[in-house]
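Provenance

Sequences were taken from public entries as deposited. Structures were produced by running a predictor on each sequence independently, with no templates supplied. The record for Pyridoxamine 5'-phosphate oxidase putative domain-containing protein from Rhodotorula toruloides is shown for reference.
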Amino acid sequence: MGAFYDQIPESLIPWIKEQKVFWVASAPLSAAGTVNVSPKGYDCLTIASTTAVWYVDMTGSGNETISHMREPGNGRLTILFNAFEGPPRILRLFGHASILPRDSAQFNALLPPGDKRRLPGVRAVVWMEVERVGTSCGYAVPFMEFVGERCISIERPLHPLRTLRRILPLHPPPPSPSSSPTQTVAPPSENPKGLAAYWKLKNAESVDGLPGLEAAGFPPEKGAIRKARRGVRVAYGAEAVRRERRGWNGSVVFVWAVVGVVVGWWAGQGGYERVREELVDLAQQVAGAIGSSVA
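Predicted structure for Pyridoxamine 5'-phosphate oxidase putative domain-containing protein:
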């Protein structure tokens, strides 16, 4: 039953569009890196052609796919679909992908203001060039019934994203006639509980320490959720590691400078002289005790 194709067969496109969930798999280039699999829901996948697809990437606590797509020389991605009803089927799309950051020209061309797919928590579009398509049986996949989408991040406040609806309306108003076609409707809020702050907290790096969402910045800011560091040197070279450590080294220098000032003040108040006198007195007592024992 298994077969491979150089592009998506036209006969399978309707079936792909019917699926309620799919999975994306990626990994860093390092053999010691962590392989990642992420589920995707909502009606977020678009088939641009028989050799290209893209999906809307929603804000979440992880950003492995984005990190792997941004890693120099990487970009490898596999998308998997499987049938939970009807005849058994598994379908995989193999290829390479790139990240179109939110509010970039390419992003706005695919998701212009007013597009219903431009959901409040969207952080990027993942564009994939399909290089191979594989189908297999899926006999071991169980039947499952679709009940509904989890809309908590859209319809209801969610800490720490509870301000999403206020910052990014679910259905942004269309641009005015004088507006540019790529004008941002509502930029991410910089308030401590806003979307941009959440990205900086959670999306600055991958679990292997690779740079994550571009808008989150790298190295991670103070207070960000820290993850492993092992992948940075492999992907970006030793200089990237040194740049990251400079901030930490600067903190150490600052602490020692403060300690030096305190010690200097203490010595100026006679603290050093008192300690010296106590040490001399202790030495004399020890010498006297030794002399008494010898006598």
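The chain has two domains: 3-236, 251-294.
The longest strand covers residues 122-136.
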